Amino acid sequence: MAELLIVYHSRTGGSRQMAEAAAAAARDETTTVLKTADAAGPDDLLQADGYIFCAPENLAALSGVMKDFFDRCYYPVLGRIEGRPYALMICAGSDGENAARQTARIATGWRLKQVQPPLIICTHAQTPEAILAEKHIPDDDLDRCRELGAALAAGLDLGVF
Ligand SMILES: Cc1cc2nc3c(=O)[nH]c(=O)nc-3n(C[C@H](O)[C@H](O)[C@H](O)COP(=O)(O)O)c2cc1C
C-alpha cells in the first residue's frame, strides 16, 4: 500500500484540526502517517510516496516551526523524492497566500508535483485576543480538508499521479 505523510504545525489548533481531518479521511484510502513538524524528518519524507503539508501563516510567511522542518530536510532529501505528489493546506487569519507561495517554492525545489491548488482556510480572527485564542475550524471547512486527504490518498493508492 502507498504511504501518505501529513506534516503539520499549529500554534492555536486550526492547522492541527485541518491535518487531523485530512488524515482521518486519508486512512480510509491508504496507509497514512500524521506527524508534527518538529517530530518529522528526512527519513519520513523518504519513506512516504506523497505528502500533505499543513501550517499557519504567521507574519506573512510560513510558520517558523514548519519552516524549520523544511530547512532541516531540504538538502538531505534533495534529488531523492522528485516527482512525488503533494498538496498544501494553510490556516490563516485573513490571507495565507504568502505562506502557500513560499511552501510551493520549496516543493518546486524538491521537484514535487502539486496535485491540487493550495487549500487556504481563514479563521477571520482580527484582534490580538482572537488571534491568540484556540481555534475551532467549522465542519464545512474540515470537510474540504477531508476531501483533500481522501483524494490524495486514493490517487496515491491507485497510482494515478
Ligand atoms: C504571530 C502571528 C502572526 C500572524 N500573521 C498572519 C498573517 O500574516 N496572515 C494571516 O492571514 N494570518 C496571520 N496570523 C493568524 C493565524 O494565521 C491564524 O490565527 C491561524 O488560525 C493560525 O493557525 P493555527 O491555529 O494552526 O496556529 C498570525 C498569527 C500569529 C500568532
From TrEMBL:
Classification via PROSITE patterns: FLAVODOXIN_LIKE
Organism: Albidovulum litorale
Ranges for domain Flavodoxin-like: 4-161
Keyword terms of this UniProt record: Flavoprotein, FMN
InterPro entries noted in UniProt: Flavodoxin/NO_synth (IPR008254), Flavoprotein-like_sf (IPR029039), FMN_Rdtase-like_dom (IPR005025)
Pfam families in alphabetical order: FMN_red
Official protein name in the record: NAD(P)H-dependent oxidoreductase
Spans traversing the lipid bilayer: none
Keyword check for Flavoprotein: yes
